[in-house]
Amino acid sequence: MRGFQSDLGAGRIVAGPEHLAGYGAARGGRDYDDAEVSDSELWNVHLPPFKAAVDAGALNVMSAYMDLNGIPASGNRWLLTDMLRDALGFDGFVVSDANAVFKAAAVAAKRGAPGRTDRAGCGGGGVEPGPATDGSGPKDRRGTSRAAVRRR
Fold first, then answer.
1. 10 Å Cβ neighbour count for 125?
2. Strands (E), 8-120
């Protein structure tokens, strides 16, 4: 983090780890496949690099685009809020990877299970656009909007 990121301002960049979490444990090592990861493996293998990045001052984290233990990682309330923000103390912003939020909605709709993304904390009736990215949504400890940033 320290090698890339400095004080925010014009001409500055932010650095952050990706793909939270369990991406390296995808079934068969295949991209986009889900991962079933025990709590022990998650906390002892997959999360320490993210904790180190948070402790080093990472201002963003990229969520994984696969399912973690049956829930899309990009809409997993436990992973992104309870673990990342509350347990690890992250107060920056989270970005999704490769349109993961919209892909999760499409898969849930195709399966006839929009509630799957509801349980993941993605919104009512399936994935909907997140909070306003104009700064009017929830704020972190620094007063920065906690709205998701989407890349296309």
1. 12
2. 18-20, 60-63, 67-68, 71-72, 93-95
Could you report the per-residue pLDDT of 128-146, keeping only the tens digit for each? 344 444 445 555 555 544 5
What is the pTM for the complete model shown? 0.69
What residues in the chain have per-residue pLDDT under 70? 2, 6-10, 112-152
**In 3-state terms, what secondary structure has residue 114?**
coil
Strand partners, 35: 68
* Alpha-carbon span 118 to 1, nearest angstrom: 33
Catalytic, out of 31, 97, 118, 134: 97
Are the CB atoms for 102 and 108 separated by under 8 Å?
no
For residues 70 and 34, the answer to whether their CB atoms sit within 8 Å is: yes
Please give the Cα distance from 89 to 79 (Å, whole number): 12
Half-sphere exposure of 44 (CA within 13 A, CB side): 5
- Tokens matching residue 57: 């001052």
Q: Please indicate whether residue 91 is annotated as part of the active site.
A: no
d(C-alpha 80, C-alpha 122), whole Å:
11
